Amino acid sequence: MLARVTRFPVERAAPLSPAEKLKLSLQMFEYGCQLMRENLRRQHPELDAEALERALQAWLRNRSDTDYGGGPMRLGKWPRGVNGD
Question: Which listed residue, of 18, 48, 66, 85, carries a Cα 20 to 30 Å from 74's Cα?
Fold first, then answer.
């Protein structure tokens, strides 16, 4: 199955405008929410649509997977890459 997944090379992202990059980021976020919604639906088939959305919102607020790369947000310098950052 992984062979069928089309990968988006990092090199393709470089020529995008900031607006296009933002749009792509938002699309990827929405896709991730759809995936998690389906995951929650499989884990909790008893939930109705409203309860499923509440579960998704709770997951977004209280991520339990911080051991896998998530974590508290940190303030950073902007723009990135300036002065060796």
Answer: 18
